[in-house]
DNA sequence: CATGGCGAGTCT
DNA sequence: AGACTCGC
């Protein structure tokens, strides 16, 4: 069966959550309804609105309170709450009930979401045509049916009956199939209503994209057919972003790059055009969908491939201590257990993998997310397994989450904004004994499952014991805690030497360990070097090739500066000294006024002097809550120097964090690193998506103006931009070295900076880095992350020197 | 702080 | 394996 001649249907339940609520509570029938999510803020967030309420102006995105204003008599049933989070299981069950009805009509059913399913009914249509004459189709077989391009269904029926007499492009065979398809879909929808009481709408076309597209054109309780010859009419006014896959960033860049807004405008571009402007795959896909072609098959899938649950902890509700983390992971783990038990009983399958994901707030309020996976072994299935393993994964892989251990106050260093556990990679349970274990476990009865939770926390917490890693493996629930405190207990030991800040040697060791400490010297030097190069460059030079080509002198110095730089000595300075010292790093080049003033501006604007008296121990809880750059790294060492009698601090106006004076430079560089990362990302994106669109990738141009950075009167915003573009500027005559990391060709004399740039990317990525493998779970998760270490490998730069001299 | 909790799929 | 995108 040719893919282009399929009959594909999308069934979409009308305001599904509302219908479920109405069915469960018949008193609601006929009334305006909006389902709100538990969130008590301003009446809860509306996630579904029935059509009565829509008619009165209630929409999603509103809060419950707003809905009441628009429609005082509105009913606001709420999504139930279980374990502190929204519990949508009743909607999931209802969706499954519907899917079961759909499945009676074809096995080729793909559940697309809780309330949507694609059906490929090509076969049923062919079967029907064997015994049913299309000419006997009448409107009473097609209630609530619309055909795009026709005023009403009768006209479409008539067109089919007359072989499309009026239209040259009428594809009779295809239209006939769609018409029969529409008849079958009417029956399907009737069956759904009959058996579940739910109304739905449907789109009928020859592929998934189009079925989806037209399904929404007539709602509720309607179905819409899209004959081939109506596609262009539909496209002529259809915003491109309405098409599935084009509603996000990609669709936006397509519109920007091609300067179009409607689907029909895509048709003027050749396939090659589109492949050049985007990539091969996307170009071809765009070319085809512009002509109504979408070959993606309907997958036969009834059950979800993964089962997961997650929760956000936004803003003030971010998790700050170990207890909250444990609590929420327990709740999430319990939910997974519940749902997995049901799934095991219903589908006789077992997940082979678990993924725990989380995100933490950066000091500036943005967040970084991370995830770790674990492949189950057969011995894994024991009480509270998911919770324990999840906690283990989070704690184990995220040194940045290590607590600040002080006075029994067990705080997480980075506030957790999001937690999620999901399991997947299901395999069918065979008759073999091992895979049956999960069912055994779940069926074993409450005694085992409930596995009374001893109050293990308190005594363990205060007195962490040394533990033998091998023997405690997977033993009991205290295992996690014990392991945890073993780790966190090291902090004071590491801290001790640093208290005396004059001990340079100790500081250096710490600096080496901490990526963001390294960042300080890297970025200071990095920027400094750039300005130096610009100075040496003749200002009047006109061509790119004039950009100075001198040996990358400090390559090895820079590589090593993380280890031996004394930039990290800050002790005994005044605030202004520190600021000036930072600025001085950029003042060596008197010609680079912009950079100097910009940096000064940055420092002045972000650092608001705020001297605070601090006693030897942070009796004030707020003190321990200071979260700056290093807090997100694993380096607990520097933090704990609270023993100094008086600490001067600043408030960073970019991220509102309190920064101790000896971290001002680091902190400023940290913000710079974040900005650089963003730019690099944007650049990568534009290079990838619009490779041949010169307007989007100005950096790629080798035109004259791109080569005079020192004269560039750019403003603050463009300052870092110029740095980024500086890194990728290449000219034919420039000796280059291919970067092993990104494959780009980089001018030799900028190679060091280029490496530093990757360093910058890595730094921000490695907010959640894993500093060292832990033997205990070493078997669980592969961690062969290459070059995860922020410590520079001397290999690359040295190689670049060699190649420089060989040319 | 302010659509949240999903689930699928792609890229590297 | 993990980060990221898309859509409901």
TrEMBL record:
Zinc-finger keyword on record: yes
Residue ranges, compositional bias (Basic and acidic residues): 453-473, 620-630, 681-690, 704-719
Region (Disordered): 450-473, 613-637, 681-719, 767-796
InterPro entries: DNA/RNA_pol_sf, DNA_pol_Y-fam_lit_finger_sf, DNA_pol_Y-fam_little_finger, DNA_polymerase_eta, Rev_trsase/Diguanyl_cyclase, UBZ3, UmuC
Annotated UBZ3-type domain residues: 645-679, 732-766
Keyword Protein biosynthesis: no
Biased composition (Basic residues): 781-796
Residues in UmuC domain copies: 8-247
Keyword line: DNA damage, DNA repair, Metal-binding, Nucleus, Transferase, Zinc, Zinc-finger
Protein name in UniProt: DNA polymerase eta
Subcellular location: Nucleus
Biological source species: Loxostege sticticalis
Tree of life domain: Eukaryota
């Amino acid at each position: 069966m040719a893919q282009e001649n399929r009959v594909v249907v999308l069934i979409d339940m009308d305001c599904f959550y509302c219908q479920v609520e109405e069915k469960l509570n018949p008193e609601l029938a006929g009334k305006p309804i909006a389902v709100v999510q538990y969130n008590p803020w301003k009446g809860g967030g509306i996630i579904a609105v029935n059509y009565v309420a829509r008619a009165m102006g209630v929409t999603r995105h509103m809060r419950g309170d707003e809905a009441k204003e628009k429609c005082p008599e509105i009913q606001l049933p709420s999504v139930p709450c279980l374990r502190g989070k929204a519990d949508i299981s009743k909607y999931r069950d209802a969706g499954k009930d519907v899917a079961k009805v759909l499945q009676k009509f074809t096995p080729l059913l793909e559940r697309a979401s809780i309330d949507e399913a694609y059906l490929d009914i090509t076969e049923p249509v062919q079967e029907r045509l064997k015994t049913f004459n299309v000419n006997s189709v009448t409107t009473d077989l097609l209630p609530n049916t619309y055909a795009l391009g026709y005023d009403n269904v009768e006209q479409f029926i008539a067109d089919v009956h007359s072989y499309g007499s009026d239209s040259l492009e009428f594809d009779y065979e295809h239209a006939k199939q769609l018409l029969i398809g529409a008849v079958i879909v009417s029956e399907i929808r009737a069956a759904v209503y009959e058996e579940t009481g739910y109304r739905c709408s449907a789109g009928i076309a020859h592929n998934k994209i189009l079925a989806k597209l037209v399904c929404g054109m007539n709602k509720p309780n309607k179905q819409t057919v899209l004959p081939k010859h109506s596609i262009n009419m539909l496209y002529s006014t259809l915003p491109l972003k309405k098409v599935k896959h084009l509603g996000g960033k990609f669709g936006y860049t397509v519109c920007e790059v091609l300067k179009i807004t409607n689907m029909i405008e895509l048709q003027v571009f050749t396939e090659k055009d589109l492949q050049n402007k985007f990539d091969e795959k996307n170009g071809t896909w765009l070319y085809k969908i512009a002509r109504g072609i979408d070959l993606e098959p309907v997958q036969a899938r009834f059950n979800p491939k993964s089962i997961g649950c997650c929760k956000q902890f936004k803003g003030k509700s971010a998790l700050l201590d170990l207890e909250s983390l444990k609590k929420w992971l327990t709740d999430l783990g319990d939910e997974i257990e519940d749902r997995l038990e049901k799934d095991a009983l219903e589908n006789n399958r077992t997940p082979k993998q678990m993924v725990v994901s989380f995100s933490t707030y950066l000091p500036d309020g943005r967040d970084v997310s991370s995830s770790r996976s674990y492949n189950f072994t057969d011995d894994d299935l024991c009480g509270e397994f998911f919770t324990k393993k999840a906690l283990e994964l989070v704690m184990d892989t995220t040194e940045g989450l290590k607590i600040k251990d002080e006075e029994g106050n067990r705080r997480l260093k980075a506030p957790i904004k999001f937690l999620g556990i999901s399991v997947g990679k299901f395999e069918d349970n065979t008759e073999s004994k091992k895979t049956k274990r999960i069912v055994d476990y779940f069926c074993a009865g409450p005694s085992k499952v409930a596995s009374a939770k001893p109050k293990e926390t308190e005594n363990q917490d205060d007195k962490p014991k040394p533990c033998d890693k091998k023997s405690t493996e997977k033993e009991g629930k205290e295992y996690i805690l014990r392991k945890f405190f073993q780790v966190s207990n090291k902090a004071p030991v590491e801290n001790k030497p640093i208290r005396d800040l004059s001990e340079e040697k100790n500081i250096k060791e710490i600096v080496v360990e901490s990526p963001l400490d390294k960042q300080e010297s890297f970025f200071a030097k990095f920027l400094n070097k750039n300005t130096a190069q610009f100075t040496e460059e003749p200002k009047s030079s006109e061509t790119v090739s004039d950009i100075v080509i001198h040996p990358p002198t400090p390559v090895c110095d820079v590589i090593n500066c993380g280890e031996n730089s004394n930039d990290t000595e800050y002790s005994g300075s005044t605030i202004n000294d520190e600021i000036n010292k930072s600025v001085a790093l950029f003042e060596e080049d008197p010609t680079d006024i912009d950079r100097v003033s910009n940096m000064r501006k940055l420092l002045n604007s972000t650092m608001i002097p705020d001297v605070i008296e601090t006693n030897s121990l942070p009796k004030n809880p707020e003190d321990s809550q200071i979260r700056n750059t290093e807090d997100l790294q694993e380096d607990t060492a520097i933090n704990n120097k609270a023993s100094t009698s008086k600490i001067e601090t600043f408030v960073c106006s970019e991220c509102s964090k309190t920064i101790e004076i000896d971290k001002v430079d680091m902190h400023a560089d940290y913000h710079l690193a974040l900005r650089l990362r963003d730019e690099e990302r944007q650049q990568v994106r534009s290079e990838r998506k619009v490779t041949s669109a010169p307007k989007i990738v100005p950096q790629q141009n080798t035109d004259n103006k791109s080569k005079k950075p020192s004269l560039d009167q750019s403003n603050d915003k463009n300052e870092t931009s110029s740095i980024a573009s500086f890194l990728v500027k290449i000219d034919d005559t420039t000796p280059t070295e291919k970067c092993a990391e990104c494959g780009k060709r980089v001018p030799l004399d900028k190679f060091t900076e280029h490496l530093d740039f990757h360093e910058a990317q890595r730094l921000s990525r490695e907010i959640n880095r894993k500093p060292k493998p832990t033997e205990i779970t070493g078997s669980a998760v592969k961690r062969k992350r290459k070059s995860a270490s922020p410590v520079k490998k001397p290999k690359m730069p040295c190689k670049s020197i060699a190649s420089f001299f060989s040319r």
